[in-house]
Amino acid sequence: MISNAYAQAPAGPGGLDPTLLMMILMFVVLYFLIMRPQMKKAKEHRQMLAALQKGDEVVIGGGTLGKVTKVTDNYVNVEIASEVEVTVQKGSVTTLLPKGTLKSAGS
User: Does 68 lie in the same domain as 41?
Assistant: First the structure.
């Protein structure tokens, strides 16, 4: 009723396991489809934050539009309405808008 179990022959030299090849291939695909574009986007965001200056029109977290009035190392003052300024962390600035966007958005 119970069949005999025999040892298998040892693997030949130099052979790569197909499972290992699939894992390596999956890592390469994930790197090029997910990790690399994310790193590129993060680098562009850091460069944008480093280039912020007074007078730039920006979008801050939550979608609020405003004009930069002061830039320090970690914080940015943004005028969101006439004589209304908020101080936000630099990282909360999400988008740098083209000049004149606020004039066209307000009308």
Answer: no
Q: Identify whether the C-beta of residue 90 lies closer than 8 Å to the C-beta of residue 58.
A: no
**What's the rounded Cα separation, in Å, for the pair 13 and 8?**
15
| pTM, 2 dp | 0.69
Strands 57-60, 93-97: pairing is antiparallel
Specify whether 47 is located in the same domain as 61.
no
pLDDT for 24 equals 94
Low-confidence ranges of the chain (pLDDT < 70): 9-15, 106-107
The rounded distance, in Å, linking the Cα atoms of 4 and 45 is: 65
Residue ranges making up the domain that contains 98: 53-106
